[in-house]
Specification:
By secondary structure, the protein is an alpha/beta fold. It has helices at 2-7, 27-33, 35-46, 60-71, 87-91, 96-103, 122-130, 173-178, 198-206, 251-254, 277-289, 327-336, 379-388, 403-409, 440-456, 468-476, and strands spanning 111-114, 136-140, 185-192, 214-219, 244-249, 264-268, 295-299, 319-324, 344-349, 368-373, 394-398, 431-435, 463-466, 488-491. It contains 16 helices and 14 strands. Helix 2 (27-33) packs across helix 3, helix 14 runs parallel beside helix 15 (440-456) and helix 15 packs across helix 16. It is globular.
Length: 500
C-alpha cells in the first residue's frame, strides 16, 4: 500500500506548486508513516470532525524518507528509459519545501546517468554540483530496452596530440564538466557498443579515479584488430580501493587494464578467444596479475579453448562460479583448470551432455560444492565431479529431479571404478542441501534410504537442508522414521547473487 501511494507521486507534472503546503493527496500517506497520526485521525472521525493533516506538518526527516524510498524503487538508475525524468528530479518539483529539502541533501544526487546520445551536459553538471563532496555512482549507457550503435572511429581519431607527440587534454563538454569531480567517483558502470566512443575513451585515458571501488563494463561488439593499447589513467593512485570489476559481453576482448588490486571479478568470456591468440594471451596475463583475487565468476566457460590453453587462477582464489552450455564443456573447463586452493565452487549448467574423460585437476581444499542444473544429473556427471572433488563437506544440488542423484550418493564407489577407492562418493560430506521439484513423499523415501546406506558405510550425513514445505512433510510423515538416524533438518539457504 505504501509503495502504491508513493508511486502516484511520480505521475505528477513537473511544476512547482505555489502552495507552500504542497499536494494534500499525501495526507493519507501519513497514516502509514506515523501510527500516532492515524490514531488521532480516527479519534477526530469518531467525534464527527475529521481533520486532514497538511503535508506541511510532515517533519523534514520523514519527508526525506519518502524521497529516498521513491528514488530507490525499481527500475533503478541503470534501468531507465531514454527521456525518462529521474525520481529525485520529479520530487524536487512537488513543492517549494520539497525542493529545498531535496537540494539540501547531497546524497540524493549521487546516482548520475548519462545517455551516449545526450548532448546537453547541464543535467550531469547539476547532479555533480548538488552532490557536493559525496562519492557518486556514474552510469553511462543506453536506457532499458534500447539499442545503441556508436560510430566506428579509430582510437587515434579520439585522441588529439600536440606537435611533440604528447596527448592533448580533452576539451569536450562532458569531460570538462566531469574532470573536476571524477576523483569522487566510487562506482562506474559503462554500457556501450565499443570502448572507442569518445566520452568513454576520455574517462579511461584522462582522469584518475582514486576512490573507484566498483567498475562494470559491457560492450556489444569486439573491436577489429588487437586490443587497443590504451593509456589507462583511471586506475592511477588506486592501489587498494578498486575491488569489484565486471566485464560483460565483449568487454574482456577490448579493455584489459592491470587489475592487480581486484578481489571480486565477474567476467563473460568473449567468443573470439579461439580465433584470436593475442586476446587469449592478454586474458591469461590479466588473470596472472590478479594476485589478490578472492572471488571469480566466469560465464560462458565453454568459450575457453581448454584443449590448447590451461587456465591458471591466482593462489588467492577462494570462491569460483562458472556457467557452461552443457556438461561436456563443464568437464573441459574443469580439465583446463590448474591446481588452485578453491574452497567454494558453484557450477551452473542448464544443458545436457556427458563428460568425456576425467577431471585432471584435483581440488584438495574444496569443501563446498553447489551444482545447479536445468536438467537431472546423470550418473556419469556425478561420478566424474566426485573424483575431482574428494574433500567435499557441504554438497548442494539444485535440479528438477533429484532421485538419480540421491541413488548415486548411496551406491558403493567400487561399482564405479577400481576397488582401491573409498566406499562411497564424498565420504567426508556431512551437509546436503537439496532444491528440487519432485513430490515430497518421494523425496522423503529416497532420503531415508540414502541416510541408511551412508550410515552403514560410516559416512553419515548430519544435516539436510530443504525447503520449508518439504521439512514440514517429513516431520509429519509416519511412513519413515528419521529420528534414529541422527540427522538434523534445516531450511534451505538461498545463495544471494552478487550485485554488479
Amino acid at each position: 500500500m505504501k509503495l502504491q501511494l508513493l508511486s502516484r507521486l511520480l505521475a505528477r507534472p513537473l511544476k512547482i506548486s505555489e502552495n507552500a503546503d504542497g499536494p494534500r493527496s499525501l495526507s493519507t500517506l501519513l497514516k502509514y508513516l506515523d501510527p500516532s497520526r492515524k490514531s488521532k485521525s480516527s479519534q477526530s472521525a469518531n467525534s464527527g470532525a475529521q481533520i486532514v493533516p497538511s503535508i506541511s506538518t510532515l517533519p523534514d526527516d520523514e519527508l526525506l524518507m519518502i524521497i529516498f524510498l521513491l528514488t530507490t524503487m525499481p527500475p533503478g538508475p541503470h534501468r531507465r528509459s531514454k527521456g525518462e525524468i529521474p525520481s529525485e528530479m520529479r520530487l524536487s518539483h512537488v513543492s517549494r519545501r520539497w525542493r529545498n529539502v531535496a537540494l539540501a541533501t547531497p546524497m540524493l544526487w549521487t546516482s548520475i546517468w548519462r545517455h551516449p546520445n545526450q548532448h546537453n551536459v547541464e543535467p550531469m553538471a547539476a547532479y555533480l554540483s548538488r552532490s557536493q563532496q559525496s562519492p557518486f555512482y556514474l552510469y553511462f549507457g543506453t536506457g532499458h530496452g534500447e539499442k545503441y550503435k556508436c560510430p566506428k572511429l579509430a582510437l587515434e581519431e579520439n585522441i588529439r596530440r600536440e606537435p611533440d607527440g604528447t596527448e592533448e587534454e580533452c576539451q569536450s563538454a562532458p569531460c570538462k564538466v566531469l574532470k573536476p569531480h571524477f576523483f569522487r567517483c566510487q562506482k562506474l558502470r559503462i554500457e556501450s557498443a565499443t570502448h572507442v566512443q569518445p566520452f568513454v575513451n576520455c574517462m579511461f585515458t584522462s582522469f584518475p579515479a582514486p576512490a573507484l571501488s566498483a567498475l562494470h563494463i559491457s560492450m556489444q561488439v569486439v573491436n577489429p584488430g588487437p586490443i587497443a593499447p590504451l593509456k589507462i589513467r583511471i586506475f592511477e593512485n588506486n592501489t587498494s580501493v578498486l575491488s569489484r570489476v565486471s566485464l560483460s559481453q565483449a568487454a574482456a576482448a577490448n579493455v584489459l587494464p592491470s587489475f592487480s588490486m581486484i578481489a571480486h571479478l565477474r567476467i563473460e568470456l568473449p567468443m573470439c578467444l579461439l580465433s584470436s591468440p593475442d586476446r587469449l594471451a592478454a586474458l591469461e596475463g590479466a588473470f596472472g596479475e590478479m594476485t589478490l583475487l578472492e572471488e571469480v565468476e566466469i560465464h560462458h566457460a565453454d568459450r575457453w579453448p581448454s584443449s590448447y590453453t590451461p587456465l591458471t587462477l591466482p593462489s588467492s582464489t577462494r570462491t569460483l562460479l562458472f556457467t557452461a552450455a552443457n556438461w561436456y564443456y563443464v568437464g573441459a573447463f574443469l580439465h583446463a583448470l590448474k591446481i588452485i586452493p578453491v574452497q567454494e565452487m558453484t557450477i551452473h549448467c542448464n544443458g545436457g551432455g556427458e563428460f568425456l574423460g576425467s577431471i585432471r585437476t584435483q581440488f584438495p581444499r574444496l569443501t563446498t560444492l553447489r551444482i545447479i542444473s536445468g536438467l537431472a544429473l546423470t550418473r556419469l556427471v556425478i561420478k566424474t565431479i566426485a573424483r575431482g572433488t574428494p574433500s567435499i563437506h557441504h554438497l548442494s544440488i539444485g535440479v528438477p529431479d533429484i532421485r538419480c542423484s540421491l541413488d548415486v550418493l548411496g551406491q558403493p564407489f567400487a561399482q564405479f571404478w577400481d576397488q582401491c577407492n573409498p566406499p562411497l562418493l564424498w565420504t567426508e560430506m556431512r551437509v546436503l542441501s537439496i532444491d528440487t521439484g519432485i513430490a515430497a513423499d518421494m523425496l522423503a523415501s529416497d532420503l531415508h534410504q540414502l541416510l541408511i546406506k551412508r550410515a552403514a558405510h560410516n559416512c553419515p550425513i548430519r544435516t539436510i537442508r530443504l525447503s520449508p514445505a518439504n521439512i514440514s512433510h517429513i516431520r509429519e510423515s509416519r511412513e519413515h522414521d528419521f529420528e534414529g538416524l541422527g540427522v538434523e533438518f534445516a531450511e534451505l539457504e538461498r545463495v544471494q547473487k552478487s550485485e554488479w
